[in-house]
Protein: Actin
Amino acid sequence: MLSEKPKRITEEEALSGSCLGKMSGGIYGGDEVSGVVFDAGSHSFRVGFAGEEYPKGDIPSYVAVQEVEPDGDVEMKEGAEPDKNIKKKRNIFIGTTKIIVPRAKTTIQNFMKDGMIEDWDMFENLLDYSYNEVLHSEAQYHPALFTESAWNDKAKRERLTELMFEKYNIPAFFLCKNAVLTAFANGRTSGLVVDSGATHTSAVPVYDGYAVTHAVVRSPIGGDVISEQLQYMLDEQNIEEEVNENEAPRWTKKKNLPEVTESYDKFMKKQILEDMAISILQLCDTPLDAEYAEKLPSAPYSFPNGFTKEFLAERIKVPEGLFDLKYLRNIPASQSTLLNVTQIATTAAGMCDIDIRPTLYSGLMVTGGNSLILGFTERLNHDLAHKCPPTIKLRVSAAPTPMERRFGAWIGGSILGSLGSFQQMWIAKSEYDETGRTIVENRCP
Structure:
């Protein structure tokens, strides 16, 4: 039998800082057994114990997959075709230090697609790695709280529930929208959460602790698009050919390396481009002005080979595409109707009831790795100020540190999982055994 409707988390509890760093004394929240919080994103997979300030592990969502021939000899009749049904074995390499090792016949793959779990075998490998190498504990001893995108579908929610109870034998489970958890991490239960991550930027209205799912808006512009734009810029400037004047390069490429795949080469370049974006890119707090761009001071960036280059106006032109799509190059015609970051936010708010729009605009929260670009929050505030009705009080905020912006949803999960009033909201193993995986739809809104 299902338990009664769980108690709603109050704003006072969400605002309470005392819930960090200690566990509550509920059924599953005691000091002896703490819950585990998993936050799966397209860029990284965050995992750690509820009640802690930051996750214990920040694992790349990419894994290295090496195809190997099956062990043993397969008997074949003369003239027979090879059996295509014989599955090749895969070696899976997880974690940055293992992924970056060059290997032959090894592709770099991501278990996420469109903000949802796509490759379940790969996902299980990441879970095993998390329990064994990060948490150093067995799954059966810890309740598991997972974040999910606001558009996650029913089938994937039920499959995750079944996987955790059936394979990992966890004592309790809960699934929560990442936008709601980001709001909790920012001390709010209502507001508009603008999340600019690796593969997309989304705006999710949150009201009274619940995501307004019918008003979710997202667009496939994010960190990956910025990395592509940086690559175009470097290709034009022929950076790889440059050396200091009258000076020979002080490095040589390693010899006898295995022939790597295109996906490996792309992944390694992407690591540099992502670091470069955070290091030198900057957004104007107003729409890009050519005169202002020319007066902007240069910013140096040192490449892995030791070469350092000063970047000028181009460092504000590249991220401008987030707010003005005409600055994005080589965008397919099929994506000509893309929304920029400001349009994503205003469209989401406009799809909500008019009575709650002031609450959303006065509590707009920015999160995600892409928001670490210097000037992102200020630019969004400026553009929204020109779009909002004058009667609405606009307040755009972001967590003060890069860690808090990147791990917003995980931190919110850590807060939620350690609240005393939350302990009755867990789906217990006994409840799952009685009802089955469909219980997640009733218990996890």
